[in-house]
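Batch manifest, entry 17 of 40.
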Amino acid sequence: MFTPHDRERVHKRVLEWSESDARVVAGAVVGSLAHRPGDRWSDLDLTFAVEDSVPIRDVLDRWSERLAQEFDAVQLFDLPSGGAIYRVFLLPGCLQFDLSFSPAAHFGATGPNFRLLFGNAIEKPFIGPPSAHELFGYAIHHAVRARVCIERAR
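Output type: structure tokens
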């Protein structure tokens, strides 16, 4: 199983990428670590804004290659939501990493678990109920979390 140190190492490295990538203009922590320290079992959720003229997939695909090379990350699936794309990865030790990008003009919180790290975010209304496609993504997410719980109980 992954450790909080493993999660922090990935977090730190991905933030280094954001600092050196001129296409990235804002970043935030989302999910369970946005406003709390999390626990031993918390996954990692980071979201970034790219310049509006930059295709999101260009940045997402390059960063995905880096995750695979540096951390042996396996891409599980993509969840498009509004203008953003969320790509879910599984890293060694069952660390789940949700990485997302959106155009800067659409970058902002869609729920309460959003902590801006750098750049600017717009005010957005919270999103409504998920589509069937999104629900499938959540099912995969919860299956991975269930596996973590099984490991935790051992």
